């Protein structure tokens, strides 16, 4: 049996959702650079789910379907209210809430194309509302309902911060959502596919994916980057902080990637957004500290920033609370998870690899009363 640690280099499935070939990321054959520069996040969701870009009319209909699905059942708002009193990470709240949504959806276990589409809309719409509602309820504020004239990106910022975002922030957040939407067979997407390949339901698949995304080696890295920036706090401390971390063989969050060898193509967009937003907020230190960190880590360790590194300073500039960074990643990535789940259902086979056994063999059973 061939065995690769962390399944490195293993091709586990075929997929037509997104690809990383020669360090170029595409969604359904479109270069992510072009989508980031020109598309709306809603167009990208449509592209991922329907394998084609929408016409203006299709996009308008899709947007109104999405907005109809952002409302949360009252039972879930009550759950969020209760959970907001616990000192729990928002990713755990999100996992609990998505799992609970299954209870309030009569179609949870229905597998028809129509039911799966309706559940896709519900999941895409409601994840954002859960994060925004939790963020406001824990501060003793009322959750806000979205505004019909705002984009999906604009509405998330509005529902989080309680203010209509300025155009630069809305545009930047739209780009960030596009950049996080899908990424081939990353850990959380693989988790979602493994889960639904047992013919489990979409809520289970997304809950499982959220669990995988939460870890600091994956989506949790953006929050860890912000923690590092806050700990360093001053550009004059970057050098000593990093050299101490290198000495202790600590990982520098937001750097390195399993697949990219010449750099993560998403990082350059986020770096530029971080620069622009820092100018808008006037709080430029996080951007300059990030640049200084990148220079040292790249020169001395040969590691390049990944999607999570500059998204930390971008989200901070957008006024997003630091423990919501990974849930914000999830609000976008759920679009890709859904596309992969639908693809898995279409051509399903149980995912069940083997393990090479390295444990003890030929043990003799000793009755409990005779054991030392
Ligand atoms: N800081 C310091 N050293 C690193 C880093 C880093 N960020 N990343 C890799 N290395 C080193 C490792 O210590 C290891 O060195 P060694 O061979 O001397 O032991 C070598 O590079 C290979 O690293 P692995 O962890 O084996 O690489 P792998 O492909 O398994 O992991 C990963 C990729 C998890 C992204 C890794 O680079 C990492 O931990 N980065 C920090 C966390 C992070 O930013 N995660 C987000 C990734 S993007 C995303 O999921 C959205």
TrEMBL record:
InterPro entries reported in the protein's UniProt record: 2-MeCitrate/Citrate_synth_II, Citrate_synth-like_lrg_a-sub, Citrate_synth-like_sm_a-sub, Citrate_synthase, Citrate_synthase_AS, Citrate_synthase_bac-typ, Citrate_synthase_sf
Molecular function (Gene Ontology), one example: citrate synthase activity
Top-level taxon of the source organism: Bacteria
SUPFAM superfamilies: Citrate synthase
PROSITE patterns, sorted: CITRATE_SYNTHASE (PS00480)
Keywords: Acyltransferase, Transferase, Tricarboxylic acid cycle
Recorded metabolic or biological pathway in which this protein acts: Carbohydrate metabolism; tricarboxylic acid cycle
Recorded catalytic activity of this chain's protein: oxaloacetate + acetyl-CoA + H2O = citrate + CoA + H(+)
Matches recorded under CDD domains: BSuCS-II_like
Cited NCBIfam families: cit_synth_II, PRK14034.1, PRK14035.1
Family indicated by similarity: Belongs to the citrate synthase family.
Protein name: Citrate synthase
Organism for this UniProt entry: Niallia oryzisoli
